[in-house]
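Extended Data, panel c. Modelled sequence:
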Amino acid sequence: MKKLSEEEARKRIEELREQINYHNYRYYVLNDPIISDEEYDELMRELKELEAMFPHLITPDSPTQRVGAPPREEFGTVRHAMPMLSLEDARNPDELREFDRRIKRALGLPEDATIEYVAEPKYDGTSMEVVYENGRFTRAATRGDGVVGEDVTPNARTIKTLPLRLIATDRWPIPARIDVRGEVLMKKKDFEELNRERMERGEPLFANPRNAAAGSLRQLDPNITAQRKLDFVTWGVGLVEGVEFKTHWDVIDALKSYGFKTSFPVRLAKGIEEVIEYYLELQDKRDDFEYELDGIVVKVNSLELWERLGTTARSPRYAFAGKFKPRQKTTRLIDVVYQVGRTGIITPVAVLEPVEVGGVIVSRATLHNFDEVKRKGVMVGDYVLVQRAGDVIPEIVKPIPERRTGKEKPIEPPKRCPVCGAETVREGAYYKCVNIACPAKLKGMLRHMASRRALDIEGLGEKLSQLLVDRGLVKDPADLFYLKK
């Protein structure tokens, strides 16, 4: 990072905070991320570095001092008895070793000391806390901003892998209260089946199993949630009354005993090198799992050491995540097409020679906007590196200039709308069609009107919206209300 003056740092910090807050809102509230996990992590890392260089610029409302974005008011809200913190992450074995060194320093241990860790898969789902009182399920809430979440109790009740009553054993009696935390997930095969059904009905497809799980859990109608094949896989607890655990391994054992589905495979590791062995093993086998994985979670096993290590405002000091490398492949960019959204924003989409990335055939990748195209220097005809970063929407990482032949063509912003031919105007990083009668905008508006967040019109999906506009039956959204059989 280049050296900045205090004023330059102040300006960049504010820019980063605005970007991160916006992406937190897209991710945590709308369940509709538009950047990959890796891109988000880079923004957060840059902000942390700048705040470390200029600590007097840290403010209480900085994203580094909190966990996420506040929930919407469509559901009731629930305050977690104990905050659901996020984890700091490592992206390679060396960074995993650095976390180990940091923990030893905090505990005053020599560098050659051996710490016992529990290593678990990091499932790519949506986090939820479930409260049990005297063994009975009483409430469920999303993670939300880590302090306050959305009450999804009726929806959670429909998840078959979530026990409504806990099972008592001699070893693990039922606590007076236990707040169980875990991940709401959808198996890859169930996600593919759901998207096939949505395609047949002309409904928008989910980008990945995580979005499908989050969208299913947050349905206003629990009957829709019940139709989706969701699982709840536990990874920890919050407040516990009436039972005492000494280790995280005890927690996992108790949760399994109580009737929960727990993470698998879990490893009790003697030192960081055994953790790294587990990390590399799961990274190689990630495509064999029934759920999407994006890394591992590593926790100090001793809960007494948890107390000694404590937490920051944002994350625990006794646990961290090891993120897997993004899935990447090289292919050729053969064309660029332009998509027009309901607001008129024109998005460039790369057409690729089909390539398999992480078990999925990728033939298109988002280019986000024309500033991004310019920044990356991508051209039609380029060989490009493609990744499913965070296993979300495929994107182009960079071109491979050394493979250019001289026949490549620059990607130019369209002067006219590719759908209606109207002139385009630039707004920031985007080009827009300003024709209010543009068929693409009209189709998008109809789909939006039909969505559950708007008028909730059953049966009005992508195919029917297209048919109504193409046949001239709807020339304005208001025409919907005058249609006759």
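Residues 6-65 form a domain with the Helix Hairpins fold (CATH 1.10.287.610). This feature is highlighted in the accompanying rendering.
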